[in-house]
Write a structure and sequence with these properties.
This protein is mainly beta. A 4-stranded antiparallel sheet has the order 1-3-6-5, with no helix packed on it. Bound molecules: 2-acetamido-2-deoxy-beta-D-glucopyranose (NAG) (2 copies). The site of one 2-acetamido-2-deoxy-beta-D-glucopyranose has 4 residues, from strand 20.
Length: 762
């Protein structure tokens, strides 16, 4: 606002001056003007440039308009006029704008106007020449406005690191210099800063302050500070600060147990060791290292008692520290962890139960088993793997003892006789022994020992009786038991006894008449006994317990029984008698004779059982003799019609009960023989007839073998031969017939016969 007012005023003044000039009232009021003066460039405000006086006309009482610079050029604002008192004035610099020789006009023409109170004016020129002055060189770029910090990587080869930009206002050639002189930097004429060495962050200072001075030829200079920071790069191997290489831990530590704190440092980076990474190179599942802290811990089971630690109780690890997770510098260190044994295993026995056999009556002191041979404590250290045997117990353990707790030798101390009644008869003793660690915490195991007292076969079996007598009826059935022998074994437990017949069981006809049950001692008969042949059998039985045996004799008395029937001769006979034979006649003088192997000759009775029609025949005597005659007892009467039968077939029974009392007959056997008689009655008048030739019919004896029966096989053979001959004869007859009557019809018949024959055969 004020400027505008000033400008307006100046315009008005200029107008007035022009008016005055036109009106011609312009006079010399400004003494000493026009003139030329000088001023130094860049002069501060208030520097006096030129002084002059105003001379007013004699009529004037003073100055109406003070001397004023009326140029409209703004640069004239660099000057002003101030009163020095009275009518003295001077031109001074305002300092704004600063007069710069290099950029501004080198000369100013100031138009100065003045008017006195009478209206007279004057306008005159003051030429001010700006005088050049030598100035300080100036920095340009970043250096000019701030403190520049330059970063240099350590290890960088010496070279140009920065270009300083400076200029001289007078455009003179500038010289660069650098302080302090001791720093490893230099500056060239061009202003380029060079490093003169390769920096090692770990050895050298990390920061340098350089005072860069730029000087013009007149010695004017300017100085700026440049900071140089050396930047650390990862160029150093970390190193372990842990000096300990050998550690000891007990075995079987739980995972997480700290074994060692491995520490390391990185010369690159002393301040933050967290940038180090730890690892184990030789991979081992038993130990692990925390990658960040280097704490070495147990991570798996470490059993000193198992291989390979059992032999080599050391775990060797190659620990690596790296200053970068993947690429970087690394250092390795081998450490050894020695594993100490701990008493962590009880003694173990294989087997844990023992079975031993000892004969009864074994002498005290007999060695049974050395437990130490079977027991072992797998702990490694001798202090941990020692053990002892104690606490022998169990029912009957007083018969046994351990020789010493160390040896583990079990011996008998008593005698165990199984037959001793004082002995409970135990065959198996169950003993327990404790096998116990010598070292704390005294782990233990129990061993079971089963001792079987093996019975010894000390005694032979003994028969109840020294000899046995059995009485056996001769008719006892084959297979029947006739008695029993019994023997006992005094051994405990009793042995099984086997019975056998060792001598005398047979006879001429049978190898074995007697049989004995091997287990029960039952004596049975295998063949019929025959009193009539042998009245007494003596044989020897044996009782055996497989090892020892005893014998006893057995006498079998065969008891007589009427087991033989009367055998009479002839057993078949044909007789012819005349019809008028006198009563009482011994017919044809016929008689039978009987014998019985087990009966008295007087014991026979004779009966005619069948065919004795009208009782014409009797035997006399009818009892009490071994022979009896056939007697005609009554006359035949065919004429009277009493008799009609001309042929009699008599069946005669002969019993052997004549001497037996009536009471005995109820129980006793009565054997009966049979004789068959064929009697033909010859009517009158008679012609002598010959008896028809007949066969001898043999009654087969159902009885036992008889030495006199040698003829039986002979008879059978002869009979067979006879029959064959007869058949052959009949065959010849038939052939002859067929030859003589060979007609078609008969041929057909023949065929029929043949077919029938074949049919029958088929
Ligand atoms: C390892 O360091 C941990 C804690 O950092 C400490 O508890 C432990 O006792 C140290 N162990 C060893 C073996 O120095
Ligand atoms: C019959 O008995 C008598 C004695 O009583 C004897 O001499 C005779 O030999 C016997 N006859 C027969 C066939 O046994």
């Amino acid at each position: 606002m004020k400027d505008r007012v000033v400008k307006t005023m100046k315009s008005m003044l200029l107008f007035l001056i022009l008016l005055g000039v036109v009106s011609g009232r312009r006079t010399q009021l400004l003494e000493g003007l026009p003139a030329t003066s000088t001023v130094e460039e860049n002069s501060a405000a208030g520097v006096s440039v030129y002084s002059f006086n105003v001379t007013v006309s004699p009529l004037a009482s003073g100055v109406a308009v003070l001397p004023t610079i009326v140029n409209s050029n703004p640069l004239t604002e660099a000057f002003d006029i101030e009163s020095k008192g009275g009518l003295e004035f001077r031109v001074i610099t305002t300092g704004n704008p600063v007069l710069d020789y290099e950029t501004m006009p080198k000369s100013f023409d100031l138009q100065i106007f003045v008017e006195d109170t009478t209206g007279r004016t004057d306008l005159n020129t003051l030429t001010i020449q700006v005088i050049d002055k030598n100035e300080h060189p100036v920095f340009r770029g970043n250096v000019a406005i701030q403190t520049v910090t330059i970063y240099v990587l350590e290890g960088t080869p010496p070279g140009r690191i920065y270009q300083v930009d400076a200029a001289d206002p007078e455009n003179e050639r500038l010289k660069y210099s650098l302080l302090p002189a001791t720093v490893p930097f230099s500056i060239r004429e061009s202003g380029a800063i060079f490093s003169t060495k390769e920096f090692d962050y770990e050895k050298d200072p990390h920061c340098y302050f350089l005072n860069i001075t730029v000087t013009d030829p007149d010695g004017l200079n300017s100085t700026k500070t440049v900071t140089i920071n050396i930047i650390n790069i990862n160029d150093e191997r970390p190193y372990f600060t842990t000096k300990q290489r050998i550690y000891r831990i007990p075995e079987e530590q739980s995972p997480g147990t700290i074994v060692a704190n491995i520490t390391a440092k990185d010369p690159d980076d002393e301040d933050s060791p967290s940038r180090l990474f730890y690892s184990i190179q030789s991979s081992d599942s038993r130990l692990s290292i925390n990658p960040a802290t280097g704490v070495l811990q147990v991570s798996g089971r470490i059993d000193r008692d198992a291989l390979p630690l059992r032999l080599h109780p050391n775990i060797s690890l190659l620990v690596r520290v790296e200053d970068g997770p993947s690429s970087g510098h690394a250092a390795d260190m081998e450490i050894t962890v020695v594993i100490d044994d701990v008493n962590d295993n009880p003694p173990e026995c294989h087997p844990s139960d023992f079975r031993k056999e000892v004969n009864e009556n074994t002498t005290p002191g007999t060695f049974l088993v050395d437990l130490r041979n079977y027991c072992k404590d797998i702990d490694v250290d001798p202090s941990n793997n020692q053990f002892s045997f104690t606490g022998l117990s169990g029912f009957g353990s007083n018969n046994f003892a351990l020789e010493s707790t160390v040896s583990g030798r079990l011996v008998m101390t008593g005698t165990i006789d199984l037959e001793n009644p004082a002995n409970p008869g135990i065959e198996v003793y169950t003993l327990t022994v404790r096998v116990q660690d010598a070292a704390h915490p005294n782990y233990s195991n129990i061993i079971y020992i089963y001792i079987r007292i093996k019975p010894v076969n000390e005694f032979a079996p003994v028969f109840h009786n020294l000899s046995y007598v059995f009485s056996v009826s001769e008719i006892t059935k084959v297979g029947s038991s006739i008695g029993r022998v019994h023997a006992v074994d005094k051994d405990w437990p009793p042995n099984a006894i086997t019975y056998s017949i060792v001598a005398g069981a047979g006879n001429r006809d049978y190898t074995n008449i007697f049989w004995i049950s091997p287990t029960k001692g039952d004596v049975r008969i295998l063949a019929r006994l025959d009193y009539e042949t042998t009245q007494k059998h003596i044989f020897t039985v044996q009782a055996s317990d497989q090892e020892k045996s005893t014998t006893a004799s057995v006498t079998v008395n065969v008891l007589e029984v009427n087991d033989e029937e009367p055998v009479c001769s002839p057993s078949f006979f044909s007789l012819q008698i005349p019809v008028d034979l006198a009563v009482g006649t011994n017919i044809n003088g016929f008689r039978i004779e009987c014998q019985d192997r087990d009966s008295d000759p007087r014991s026979f009775c004779y009966f005619i059982n069948e065919g004795n029609e009208n009782s014409h025949f009797i035997f006399s005597p009818s009892a009490g003799s071994n022979t009896s005659r056939l007697i005609l007892a009554s006359r035949f009467d065919y004429e009277g019609g009493l008799d009609t039968n001309w042929i009699y077939s008599l069946r005669v029974h002969i019993t052997d009960d004549n001497l037996i009392s009536a009471r005995e007959k109820m129980t006793h056997l009565i054997k009966t023989g049979t004789v068959t008689l064929s009697i033909r009655v010859i009517p009158n008048p008679t012609t002598a007839t010959t008896t028809t030739p007949g066969f001898t019919v043999v009654t087969e004896r159902e009885n036992l073998f008889s030495p006199s029966a040698w003829y039986v096989p002979f008879t059978i053979t002869a009979g067979s031969a006879l029959l064959l001959g007869l058949l052959g004869y009949l065959g010849l007859l038939l052939l002859a017939r067929l030859r003589t009557h060979r007609t078609a019809l008969e041929n057909m018949k023949f065929v029929n016969y043949t077919l029938n024959l074949l049919f029958i055969t088929g």
